[in-house]
Amino acid sequence: MLTNEQRREQLSSLSKQAEMGGGLERINKQHEQGKYTARERINKLLDPESFIEFDKFVVHRCESFGMEKTKYLGDGVITGIGKINGQQVAIFSQDFTCWGGALGGAFAKKICKVMDFALENKIPVIGINDSGGARIQEGVESLAGYAEIFYRNVKASGVIPQISLIMGPCAGGAVYSPAMTDFIFMVDKTSYMFVTGPDVIKTVTHEEVTKDDLGGAHTHNEKSGVAHFRTDDEDDCFERVRELFSFIPACNKAKHSLKLTTDSVTRSNNKLKNFIPDNSKKPYDMHELILEVIDDQHFLEVHADFAKNILTGFASIGGIKVGIVANQPSFLAGCLDIDSSVKAARFVRFCDAFNIPIITLVDVPGFLPGTVQEYGGIIRHGAKLLYAYSEATVPLITLITRKAYGGAYDVMASKHIRADINLAYPTAEIAVMGAEGAVNIIFRNELNGLKGEDFNKKKASLVENYENNFANPYRAAELGYVDEIINPEITRQRLYQYLKALEHKKIPTPDRKHGNIPL
Question: Cα(513)–Cα(44) distance, rounded to whole angstroms?
Answer without folding.
Answer: 41
